[in-house]
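User: Sequence for RNA recognition motif domain-containing protein below. Tokens please.
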Amino acid sequence: MSSKIYVGNLPYSVTDASLKSNFAEFGSVSSAKVMMDRETGMSKGFGFVEMASAEVAQAAISALHGMSVDGRSIVVSLARPREASKDSGGYSAGGYTATKRADVGYGTGGFGGGRY
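Assistant: Structure tokens for RNA recognition motif domain-containing protein:
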């Protein structure tokens, strides 16, 4: 089973290839991706590495967490699953949903709307 690793506080000079080579010292790397800003094309300063097994991933985390790369102390940990946003309102796959607040909206007023 593969393990996904979060790598944060990366210098902007780090590329996918250099990230992969740093982790390849500890075992087989399935993928390495530095997250890039869509508009500027520059690194966001973090990325993800997927390794072949949990044991290899843990060895890499232990060895590389806190290591200095171009003067920056990198953060290396197991990646957590992405959390879904909770009831934020707005457009989504399910359509438009308004906020669930009872004290605002059109529900309780007479002609011309409700309380704001």
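Helices lie at 16-24, 54-64.
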